[in-house]
Amino acid sequence: MRFSLVIVESPAKCKKIESYLGPGYKCIASFGHLRELKGLDKIQRSDYTVFFDIASDVKKQKHIEFMRKEVLKAEEVILATDDDREGEAIAWHICQIFDLDPTSTKRIIFHEITENALQSAVLYPRTINMNIVHAQQARQILDIVVGFKVSPLLWKHITSQNSLSAGRCQTPALRLVYDNQKDIDASPGKKMYNTLAYFTNKCIPFELTKSLENETDAQYFLHQSIGFEHRFNRSDVKKILREPPEPLTTSKIQQLASNEMRISPKETMKLCQSLYEAGYITYMRTDSKKYSPEFIASIKEYVVKEYNDSAYLHPCIDRLTVGSKEKESITAKKSKKIIGPLPQEAHEAIRPTHISCKKLPEEMSAREKKLYTLIWENALESCMAAATFTTFIASATTHIPEVHYTCTQELIDFAGWKIVKGKFSKVNKEYSYLQQLKIGSILPYKKITCKFAFSGLKQHYTEAKLVQLLEEKGIGRPSTFSTLIDKIQERKYVIKQDIPGKKIECKDFSLEDGTILEETVEKEFGNEKNKLIIQPMGIMVLQFLLEHFDSLFNYDYTKYMEDELDKISNGNVSPWFKICETCWHDTDLICDALKTEKKREIRIDDHHVFMIAKYGPIIKCTIDGKTSFKHIKKDIDMEKLMRSEYTLEEIVEEKKEKEKEKEKKYYQPESIGEYQNHPLFVKKGKFGIYTEWGKNKRSLSKFGNRPIENITLEEVISEIEKNGVPVDGQKPESSIVRLVNDNISIRKGQYGDYIFYKSKKMKKPSFLKLDGCTLDYKACNIIFLKDWILEKYGVQ
């Protein structure tokens, strides 16, 4: 039977698409890109013709042959790859591989996997937009020029033992974290005292408008307050509006999920992909802040039905409709005017496909449910009226004429969009009480406190903040933000971690019943949770790149290249490869000048050098021709190190060095990490080095006479898993073919390969079949494999 063949990127969409389009359609997936650009030698520089190679993955090659057979059997081919630059390029590559005419082959676009969206897309197909394809190719060429030409210089001048890399957008992203660290180092904070007064029998807190600088000022202020008559004042009541949140773009959902769910941008996009493929939300890679007319109509109906009042709808809701000529959001207070032409708005903002679907079914994961709730609430709130409040400022005088206490009070007048979550109170007793007080009356205080604090302490960036800055500075596209943030952490340039605060013994003061009390307390300042911290390796790499490639990696140049890619996408640049030639030429000039530069090391003294080794920074010690290595402390100030302001004793990790001396006398090993929920030890025995964990032992003879303290956890685990992993002291009956994550691995059994699944909460593992898996599970993209396992068995 002849059929129309629909080609998408992800296999998870296929069954649903076939069910919506009917029996005359068959849907298959490309599993992402089918061809790759392997190097600079594949680019013809005269006109930037690119000679792509079929993906080297054997399973991918077999899949291409499967696709070829399906294409030949089909009556027509409909390209339904994602509506972004990568998707457009994949569609073009499919045409090239299977000899389809890109000027006539149907290309359909849909932003939600629903029956109406798919049938509408099939009714109104277009063809491949070569401007978008050229923009993708230009981006690919720019990335490979920078990566292939600059990264080898890092290997030459810093270390060849580590997978260091530079990237057109990756390096500016790292620079943001680096610049912030410099600001933090330059802003140690200022000591001060914050003052609160609790007035009336209701102990209503008022805050002093001025900070006090030291203990003397705090004590003097409280002393002057003992007999002072604080006079009450109150401003006029006024109305304020709180506008609803804006519709969700790619960057905004990453920030929202990071702040509300404490998950990374990468995890957010993975969850969004799952929700999109399941048909619950619209496409998640979008810059648009508009909704379809159909969705706006459904919102109007839902709000009136749910809240029984059309006043809850935003009076300018129609300005949120795709195709509206308004350049500004309905939240005029927050919005920024778009400079230049209106963006293409084929996409919508991220929203639920059906506003009536308030909750997901039970089989969805907890994180998917939580993220969906955030998306659902935001979509509804963004279309609703502003919340209105009445507010005033109450104040009280002090003995200093220009300084006073203030207390802001507000009362909700109309809930507007805030009714969605219902997190507001219609009653404010303090508001009513302070409204009744007579202006000029004396306010008796119950207690006044002066508490020690720090002002001006700068914070490290969260992932959400970094996403915001990448968007503001035009570094990359929102769809690439999660990859950039993940990459700088994967390279160990930056680590996401908690920062312990510094404990300070300080004095707080209070005034109560005419008596000044002093209390010595220990307070902690500067503690932070889940922040991005630049590492010594990241600092060395970035400083090298800024010293030699500042023009290539400064924020303005990066934004300029992104703007040029947008122009190519819109057909406003000819020839399209002009930006590629500019970047290639600029990079060559700098690389040529670096050919005679020596490898970068920081000398501590005549015998010791700071350097980057395979697993990070170390001190190389050379005495009498013998070389050894010393561990360094984690909190080294790289700027200070480069200025030669450290002595050796100040940077060497003394604890580890003392342990090494102790081991020479009597070896008492400590765990180097954890494996299979057991501490993992490296020991020296009668027959050489071996590792031990739980009831298991494994020889490490391959390391020869290498010092035990120089053997890493990663190396030991790799050696363990080469020939299979024993369990509870038994000999392995199976061997690991591929590790998927901490809970899942592909293993070789007596009757073939299978999936081994065991989470930390499970007492016994589950053994799952690989039947039906069309992937090359030994070598395919790990994301595809995880998605298949999740879809097949619901485990991850």
How would you describe what is shown here?
- Residues 129-590 form the Topo IA-type catalytic domain.
- InterPro entries: Topo_IA (IPR000380), Topo_IA_2 (IPR003601), Topo_IA_AS (IPR023406), Topo_IA_cen (IPR013497), Topo_IA_cen_sub1 (IPR013824), Topo_IA_cen_sub2 (IPR013825), Topo_IA_cen_sub3 (IPR013826), Topo_IA_core_domain (IPR023405).
- Its EC number is 5.6.2.1.
- It comes from viral metagenome.
- Belongs to the type IA topoisomerase family.
- The chain is 35% helix and 22% strand.
- It has 796 residues and is of the alpha+beta class.
- Strand 30 and strand 31 (766-768) form a beta hairpin.
- The strands form 8 sheets. Strands 9, 10, 11, 12, 13, 14, 15, 17 and 18 form a 9-stranded antiparallel sheet that branches. The chain has a 4-stranded parallel sheet with strand order 2-1-7-8. The chain has a 4-stranded antiparallel sheet with strand order 20-21-22-23, with no helix packed on it.
- Among the domains are: 4-128, Rossmann fold (3-Layer(aba) Sandwich), CATH 3.40.50; 190-240 and 391-455, Topoisomerase I, domain 3 (Distorted Sandwich); 250-382, Topoisomerase I, domain 4 (Orthogonal Bundle); 602-665, no CATH class; 733-796, no CATH class.
- It starts with a strand and ends with a helix.
- Helix 6 (170-185) crosses helix 14.
- The chain contains 22 helices and 31 strands.
